[in-house]
Amino acid sequence: MPNQAAGGGHRAAPVHTDPDDVSVLTALSALADPVRIQLIRELAGSADWTRSCGSFDVPVGKAALSHHFSVLRSAGLVEQRDKGPKRVNRLRRGEFDTRFPGLLDLLLRTDNAD
């Protein structure tokens, strides 16, 4: 197993799920959490690959944030890659919209704000 120590070792590349392999139940479950909704909304308003995981102002710790991103990757919503010491993100809007047309549009509507 690659060295994933916090002291600067290499970590394993994230595993991504193709949106075509995601069930509607998995997608809806991933989008049911307020923290994940906030992450998706912030990514939707940002250019691809400009947001590192630590740049989101969410009320959870690092381990919980990592879990939330894992759920979003598993649902085909987010793609991540390492850029130096940071992990950067992009919303897979086009791919996800092809699989579930209109779902993200509903989630991102401003009249749906909590």
Structure characterization notes:
This protein is of the alpha+beta class and about 110 residues long. Helices cover about 40% and strands about 10% of the residues. The protein contains 5 helices and 3 strands. It has helices spanning about 25-30, 35-45, 60-75, 95-100, 105-110, and strands spanning about 50, 80-85, 85-90. The protein has a 3-stranded antiparallel sheet with strand order 1-3-2. Mean pLDDT is about 90; it is low at about 1-10.
Brief overview:
This protein is of the alpha+beta class. 39% of the residues lie in helices and 12% in strands. It is globular.
Keywords:
39% helix; 5 helices; disordered N terminus; 114 residues; three-stranded antiparallel β-sheet; alpha+beta; 3 strands
